[in-house]
Amino acid sequence: YAGARGLVWRLIAIAVIVLVLLMLAAYRTIASYVTRIAVNQKFAEDLAQGNYAREGNQPKSNDEIGLLGRAMNEMFETTRGVLHNISGQADNMASSSQTLGTSADQLKQGFTSIEEKMGSISEAMMNASSATEEVNASVEHVSHAIHSLSDEARASLQQADDLKNRAQDVQVKS
Hints:
Layout: H1 2-48, H2 64-173
């Protein structure tokens, strides 16, 4: 019975040692998972805060946690590429907007110049119209004077003919 008892104690000691070793192995495995999950969690938190300046996640294992880390890294790279494209397009839009603003200012200056020239042309046309009206009035006045002179010349010619006829009548009667 003493031999059996020693064997039981040895088996219990071996079981305790195996149990302790299993617990240490389980602890290391769980600690490794927790550490890798914490790395992925920190990576996800940085992405959620918009920190795309950091380096991507580099998982070393091929288990589920490693696959999750690779998927997050792929999402990170794709999102960073999209943000880079958007930033480039925003720069292009800002440059185009500035060019359009400059063009609009030039057009405004051109239209202002055209407006001023149209005002000058309108003023010159008004002056020409006024001068034309004055010339027309002068021409009408001259025309009226010529008609008056013409009428007076006819009347004088008629009087001269009458005097000539009277002079011939006086000469014939005398």
